[in-house]
Protein 1
Amino acid sequence: MGFIIGPWLAQSVRAAVDLNLAEHLAEGPRTAAEIAEAEGSDPGATARFLRACASLGLVATTGKGFAGTETLAVLHRDAPMSLRDLAASQSTAVTWLTWARIPEAIRSGEAQTDKALGMSFFDYLAAHPDQGALFGAAMASMSAPVIREAVEVIDVSGATTVVDVGGAHGTFALAMLAKHPGLDAIVLDLPHAVPGARAAAAERGLQDRLTAVAGDFFEAVPEGDVLLLKFILHDWADDDAVRILVNCRDAVRPGGRIVITEILIDDQATGMAPLMDIAMLATAGSRERTLAEFDDLLTRAGLRRAAVTAVQPPYFVIEAVVAA
């Protein structure tokens, strides 16, 4: 039953985000009536929903109403590792309608976004800027613990320019700039993502060191010493992934490196990795890959693996250089 009612749980978390429960309860307990008044929601339905949230451990009942829990706290917009945007993004139509076609994805081995949404996943995000912005924010929050560890292991000696390829709001690039004061950064992404990257840089006072440019990594990649590819290659089938890597090979300066941050999967994988693999099948017709499969992509692109380092499970940092 826990598996079967999974959709109920996900949409309950989404409703908790939509009603701003974490924010309302951050300073102490509040009654259902107080939350309903603040949100303009139906008082009776709000009380029933809070009762359901208590059964899930999102809130706790007290003599003064409902109190937040540690579980709810990660849905607060200001939490250090907030999952608010991810919870909202993963329970909206762009993901929900595609996941509803998982059986068809498995039978056909093909992405289902065209059938579910009428267009490809990324075309849909571009056509719906609000969803594109939410997805970018969600990927930033999902990336945070991985980036925090990745910036500690990436060697930037001799580098002056980092390029965040398909970097959305530039979260990875900004973390690299904060860690290494001598670096500048370029974020490359589709036009709908550029304003978010510029705003994120300005918010952190790094707008003078970060340039956000609109472009297509299938066409060209800006020149740099360290090229970052975080959660990019798993979006694409092998031939497309090789095209991206070839453009990165052409853009990396002599002595530079291409840094790939992705899940590594194998037949014994557990937890999120195998489920993410199915998500990539349904949304993009792509896959998570084994280390051997990454090596094959690199070889086809005229690159070779120089190092691989484990970071936040199940993610790894793969460093590649131009093959001799």
Protein 2
Amino acid sequence: MSKHTENELESGVLLVAEPFLTDPNFKRGVILLCDHQENGSFGFILNKPIEMNINDLISSFPSFQSEVYYGGPVQTDTIHYLHTKGDLLPNSIKVLSGVYWGGDFEQLKEFIKMGKIEPKDIRFFVGYSGWSAGQLNMERKILSWMTVNGHIDYVFGENKELWKNVLEEQGGTYGIIAQMPPPILN
């Protein structure tokens, strides 16, 4: 995995919560930034699974054993998905190499029924993380987020210790930060 230099924010970058960020939505969170424009940014928290399956949320969805994640506090009544099948699923948007966002939902259901998309190929999210114009840049200036290059393994791999693992892989100061215990809050 490549190390991230302080490049401009862009699609495919990971936002890694600073160790003392205490907002419960983002504490020790790793967010895949899916879009960053002048008028705002959005992404999905990769390491906050919820105790639900996609079939628990959408009764008309084909039987499919896919865990659902908390994508963020914005529009928690919506469902989004990241997947590896951008070459197959129409209207998918490339986020980074091998990772795509969205696409034709009805076609997605058909491909699942046909077995062309398996649980390892997709991750579902309830809600998303969003920032208004200039907000994310301001949060970086006050050191709420570290930035790291995204990688497909961060999105679809094991995420139990994702925050720690991402930082350790960067080495140096990031590796030291990864060893910090969570803050104790009263």
Protein 3
Amino acid sequence: MPIINRIKLYLAVSIAKTITFVVRSLGFGAASVLPGAIARRIEPKLLQFLSQQVKKGIILIAGTNGKTTTALLLCTILENKGFKIAHNSTGANLENGLATALIENTNLVGYLNVDYAILEVDENIVPKVLQPLQPNLIICLNLFRDQLDRYGEVDTISKKWTRAISTLPTETVVIPNADDPTLSYLGQQLGQRVLFFGLSEPENYLESIPHAVDSIYCPRCGDPLDYQGVYLSHLGDFTCPSCGFKKSQPLLLSGEWSQILVGLYNKYNTLAAVTAAKELGIDEPTIKNSIDNFQAAFGRAEDLLVSGKKVRILLSKNPVGTNETIRVVTQSQDKTTLLVLNDRIPDGTDVSWIWDVDTEKLVERGGTLIVSGDRLYDMALRLRYSQSSLDSKIRLIVEEDLQQAIKIALENTPHHETLHILPTYSAMLDVRGILTGRKIL
């Protein structure tokens, strides 16, 4: 590294660490973005210089849903094997957040002493960060419509991914979801080493393709795919009767790995992490022990005990994810659910996606539904439109004050049941702040 870059890197890291200390000491936040933003202004090649110091390699985890859980599980497996890991665990997954996470693990002069860096990456910036980071392994979880005010259609993103990944060295390992047609096709086009993961569980097929489906057309020829069954959204077992394109063969049998968290979607997260761990040479006893003792990431099927009552927080930030959390709720015997809808920057300012959610299934099963958040009336209207008649079995409570809404939800939850909370991202942070801070007591 040229001497001028060494000086700039030293200054960038030192200033970033000072900012982190000040922000956290004053209680202004987690300092997960600002230090990286300023450091990259001082040294624009900071991501490149720091990633080159990672001893064993960079692991990128990209996709619409499941990044945090998959990353945390893979971190747990590797740490249990004795490796030192850098991870953007706060969920800041744009360039500045990645820079902050790497800086967090350096010393004052910019020396990074870690074996692996596991970085969750927002799907829209994957093409931007591949060249500076030069990842050794890329996990491609899924592609769904997410924040409609920011991102384009699924096929546009997948084409950008394909072009960007194809420029990487051939020894790069890519692990795509075989059940996602766009990612299955992506993997089949690459010259890199490709390992697929996916489900083989027809007993878990949905009864019908949900409203929130994104990609049921062949990515090769454009004709409709023939689905033997779907697991969630457009993820399933498929073939194209026109051109012969079909689902790629997963490396692992999904039934061999235990369900560690609620929700079928977490089987995908588990399979992705296990496939990566095996490729990195981790033995099965370490992997299985890590899975058996795994604790969910905050807000992702996280269980809390509040005032002697069980509370489960299920992050619900887009149509596919919310349909899956609704499936978890409706498969339980619990009858109280709190839905919290926000439209802040981390959530996406367009909340029209709630009309693609199958809220009818939540309404049909009955019980008490409490709604809150910045856009609570939008959610209340969606639930009302889900009723076949006004004499529906649900009891709908609309409460603007989130703290009061949580209190009402807890009061309506019997001690032998679990209160399910379905919040968007910023709402999840608010909910956890109230629950863990015991502000309602």
